[in-house]
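Dear U.,

For the methods section draft, I wanted the exact inputs and outputs in one place so we can describe them consistently. I've listed the two proteins in the order they'll appear in the manuscript figures. Please don't edit the token lines directly; just add comments below if something needs changing.

First protein:
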Amino acid sequence: MNQPTILQSSDLDNFSLVSTTELANLLKRKPQTIRMWLCNDRLPFGLVRPLSINNRNYWLLDDVRNYLQSLQGG
């Protein structure tokens, strides 16, 4: 099993994070849909797994942007 990545608060200063609710808005889905994908290990192809911070899921903004660009074919 993969070991979780442990980030220090200083590591997060250089990253923009997207919450589950924000990701759902970007994908035009409900937050519960995103949670269901995670629970069932069924994230869409190309969408990386989120970071877990204080038992909440966050995606790196760059990863989300890359995923959205891949949906547009670019």
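Second protein (the one for the lower panel):
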Amino acid sequence: SSGSGRAEKMKILISEIPDEGLELTIDETLESDVIKLVSPVRGQLSIRKIMPEVVIQGEITASAEFECSRCLKNYTSEINAPIIVTYHPAEELKAEEGKREIREDELETGFYFGDELDLTELLKEQILLNVSMKPLCSETCKGICPKCGTDLNVNKCSCNLDKTDSRLEVLKELLRRE
């Protein structure tokens, strides 16, 4: 096959969701410009129609490669993304021009156009929402020495990194001279 068949699987026709809902097993290789995914996105989603809304719940996981914000090494870590999203028909947006109240339980809201729901965007979005802004290769990562650049997880350096900031030292000197 031309390979386009796989992507089609991620598109859901709302009119074809049965009354009892759909259970989907996700196992998709996704590309993202923002994050380097190194495994397929896997998980379970249940899709229910409460017309005109479509509710998607479940959990997905994927492995991605990050750069540690302390020591700058690349490392691979798993992302878990719990999903609860309510989709509304996009016509609602036009019809009500912002008059719509957002209910408490609707923090995650999406919109669908016509009869089609594309899960690819949902999966990418949810993965990104669960990525830490300051990724750390480990909670205890010591980072790199701001003076000499030694990776402090591997070696100690001889830099004298007292807790006091060198700028304070200058102040202390001046105060001493007073």
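Candidate sentences for the figure legend, describing the second protein: The chain has a mean pLDDT of 85. The longest helix spans residues 166-177.

Thanks,
Y.
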